[in-house]
């Protein structure tokens, strides 16, 4: 039976582009149906029934899954597309040698940011891309615009416009689709490799280097000797002509015994051919090896040899552990001091005083506060004022590890303790922190079965490695932090009461930014200077920033300052603030209308656009239907399907901001809606 694949996108044009490409890949083996929020009403039972009858759905963003999840079963196959550029689009961008700043135009802030991230991954980080999208406040004064198929949204002021074409579905997503559809055997089809040939991969920089001709052989050999992975090159006749020292060590064959020999005789496990291989696990001389092969093709497509990049699988695991844990000495250093805890408020002054007092003790410290308030900074400041300041400061995030791995990371393990364990065993975090400070971030996320073992370490000051029998003495200062209410977690049975009291000997509460508003100006100035920013914030704008709630605390403030710095403006007004901040500086609107519940409307851009359209219709003595509202929204460069309009009108009617006529009478703005808009315009004018 022919499989059925559905594509769901916001834009109909993007969906059509995906469909055309996938039809070339799958041929007649899969029936493909495209749906878009632009053209389809997902409130329609007919559409939902069509989707339910599919074998797999491909969506372009996670937010689309959130919209569809109510209609799908938990085991429904949903694939979120990973995207890349076509080689044609890549070459267009590569040709812009005289461009250092450009607008990146896309459908939304999220999609623009996502595309910028992709371009930076592909090596275009020397171009400063400024996101531009429909309905943004002020369009940056930049001559060059780059877009991925969204020419209709390119500002008219752009003097040079480059369309890279719609982003394409990348290789990993194609493979995932074949697997979900149960068609893995078709991955070898020529149509698949032909499609892959049109894509730019994230390894393009490596592939470019590996594709150089023999004229660069000497330079390449020098480079290979510096690489930390093994590299072996076999020419078009399958003769090994080059390899580096790491390759010798990994395959356990001397270089002199490999060079000039037939690759299929010396290393039959490696397929030196015109086929590209990525991250395949093979066994060579009793060792598991991570293998990738990159064929070298001439301009006419003629095969000219192949490079194998190999890595000892166990060494790869160990290297990842080193990176993740920053093993020993150099990595375990507390870089922040009490001088970097900035602010003049009484709240932050109290925190600094507590740090000074608690640094003198060896008792456990529990730091609490919302996410982004700087709890790790406080922990490092305590360490750097303590007698342990010259010893290790080892930080571990209890929420970042798989629960099954966290125990072995904390306690370490002996050789052969479990499948995949290092043959030499591994020192755990407790041992690394011996005589120093151990910082357990997000302690509230620690699995409850591990909490009992942590309690024993605190009480007995000794550990035993996983799979071991030797008792190892440890002595370290423990500082824990959490953004959860641990007393509430105790009531829910998610946190041990005895561990809580063992940790909460010296408590420190780090206040959120909204409770220390007088520090905001000091912090903004500090972060601005650290970014070498050259802008001034008007008094009115600074007052607005002080009234903002800052749910993300210091992290959100840093992001805001970075955004303002990228605007490259000398003076920052309220209209220059990030959109999500502008829309929430709404206290004056709420006071004018005496309705706190209107927050939902103020924070929903769709509601504000529709309300504005209805107000214009009121002035023209018109009543509008959903289709007309959708068209007028599109004219304002805002994509709203009739389904979106229906949802928005329902919400506006609930808050009595609109009147709806029965039948086909259309919708009109209410007196309360007019009052709401006038108050909002008054705020924006200020």
UniProtKB/TrEMBL annotation:
Pfam families: AAA_lid_14, Sigma54_activat. The keyword Ion transport does not apply. Gene3D superfamilies: 1.10.8.60, P-loop containing nucleotide triphosphate hydrolases (3.40.50.300), PAS domain (3.30.450.20), Winged helix-like DNA-binding domain superfamily/Winged helix DNA-binding domain (1.10.10.10). InterPro entries: AAA+_ATPase, AAA_lid_NorR, P-loop_NTPase, PAS-like_dom_sf, Sigma_54_int, Sigma_54_int_dom_ATP-bd_1, Sigma_54_int_dom_ATP-bd_2, WH-like_DNA-bd_sf. Residues 341-566 form the Sigma-54 factor interaction domain. The keyword ATP-binding applies. SUPFAM superfamilies: P-loop containing nucleoside triphosphate hydrolases, PYP-like sensor domain (PAS domain). Keywords: ATP-binding, DNA-binding, Nucleotide-binding. GO terms for molecular function: ATP binding; DNA binding. GO terms for biological process: regulation of DNA-templated transcription. This is Transcriptional regulator with PAS, AAA-type ATPase, and DNA-binding Fis domains. It comes from Tepidanaerobacter syntrophicus.
């Amino acid at each position: 039976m022919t499989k059925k694949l559905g594509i769901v996108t916001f834009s109909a044009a993007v969906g059509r582009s995906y469909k055309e490409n996938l039809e070339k890949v799958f041929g007649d083996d899969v029936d493909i149906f495209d749906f878009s929020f632009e053209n389809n009403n997902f409130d329609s039972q007919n559409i939902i029934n069509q989707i339910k009858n599919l074998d797999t759905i491909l969506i372009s963003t996670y937010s689309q899954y959130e919209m569809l999840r109510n209609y799908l079963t938990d085991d429904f196959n949903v694939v979120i597309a990973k995207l890349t550029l076509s080689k044609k689009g890549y070459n267009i961008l590569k040709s812009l040698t005289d461009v250092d700043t450009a607008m990146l135009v896309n459908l939304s802030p999220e999609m623009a940011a996502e595309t910028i991230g992709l371009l930076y991954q592909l090596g275009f980080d020397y171009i400063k891309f400024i996101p531009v999208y429909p309905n943004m406040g002020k369009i940056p004064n930049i001559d060059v615009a780059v877009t991925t198929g969204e020419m209709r949204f390119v500002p008219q002021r752009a003097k040079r416009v480059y369309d890279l074409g719609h982003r394409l579905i990348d290789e990993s997503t194609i493979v995932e689709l074949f697997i979900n559809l149960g068609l893995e055997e078709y991955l070898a089809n020529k149509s698949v490799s032909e499609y892959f040939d049109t894509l730019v991969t994230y390894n393009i920089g490596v592939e470019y280097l590996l594709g150089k001709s023999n004229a660069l052989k000497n330079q390449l050999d020098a480079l290979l000797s510096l690489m930390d992975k093994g590299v072996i090159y076999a020419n078009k006749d399958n003769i090994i002509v080059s390899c580096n020292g790491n390759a010798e060590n990994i395959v356990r064959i001397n270089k002199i015994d490999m060079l000039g020999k037939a690759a299929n005789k010396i290393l039959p496990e490696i397929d030196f051919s015109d086929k590209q291989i990525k991250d395949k696990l093979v066994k060579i001389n009793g060792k598991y090896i991570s293998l990738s092969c990159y064929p070298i093709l001439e301009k006419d497509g003629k095969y000219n040899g192949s490079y194998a990049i190999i890595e000892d699988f166990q060494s790869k695991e160990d290297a990842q552990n080193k990176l993740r844990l920053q093993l020993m000495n150099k990595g375990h250093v507390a870089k922040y001091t009490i001088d970097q805890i900035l602010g003049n408020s009484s709240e932050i002054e109290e925190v600094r005083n507590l740090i000074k007092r608690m640094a003198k003790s060896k008792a456990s410290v529990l730091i609490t506060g919302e996410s982004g308030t700087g709890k790790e900074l406080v922990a490092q400041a305590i360490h750097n004022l303590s007698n342990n300041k010259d010893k290790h400061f080892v930080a571990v995030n209890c929420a970042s590890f798989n629960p099954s791995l966290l125990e072995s990371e904390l306690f370490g393990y002996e050789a052969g303790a479990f499948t995949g364990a290092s043959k030499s065993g591994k020192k755990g975090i407790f041992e690394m922190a011996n005589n120093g400070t151990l910082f357990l971030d997000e302690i509230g996320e620690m699995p409850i079965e591990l909490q009992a073992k942590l309690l024993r370490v605190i009480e007995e000051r000794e550990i035993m490695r996983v799979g071991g029998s030797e008792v190892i003495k440890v002595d370290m200062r423990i500082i824990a932090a959490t953004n959860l209410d641990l007393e509430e977690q105790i009531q829910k049975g998610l946190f041990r009461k005895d561990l809580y009291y063992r940790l909460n000997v010296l408590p420190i509460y780090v206040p959120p930014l909204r409770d220390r508003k007088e520090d905001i100006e000091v912090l903004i100035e500090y972060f601005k200077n650290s970014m070498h920013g050259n802008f001034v914030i008007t008094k009115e704008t600074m007052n607005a920033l002080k009234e903002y709630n800052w749910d993300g605390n210091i992290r959100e403030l840093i992001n805001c300052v970075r955004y303002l710095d990228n605007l490259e403006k000398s003076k920052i007004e309220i209209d220059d603030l990030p959109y999500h901040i502008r829309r929430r500086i709404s206290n004056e609107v709420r006071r004018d209308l005496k309705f706190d519940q209107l927050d939902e409307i103020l924070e929903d851009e769709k509601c504000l656009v529709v309300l504005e359209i209805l107000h214009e219709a009121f002035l023209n003595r018109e009543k509008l239907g959903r289709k007309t509202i959708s068209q007028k929204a599109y004219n304002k460069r805002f994509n709203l399907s009739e389904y979106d309009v229906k949802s928005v009108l329902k919400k506006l009617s609930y808050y009595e901001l609109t009147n709806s006529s029965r039948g086909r009478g259309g919708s009109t703005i209410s007196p309360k809606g007019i009052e709401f808009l006038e108050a909002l315009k008054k705020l924006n004018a200020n």
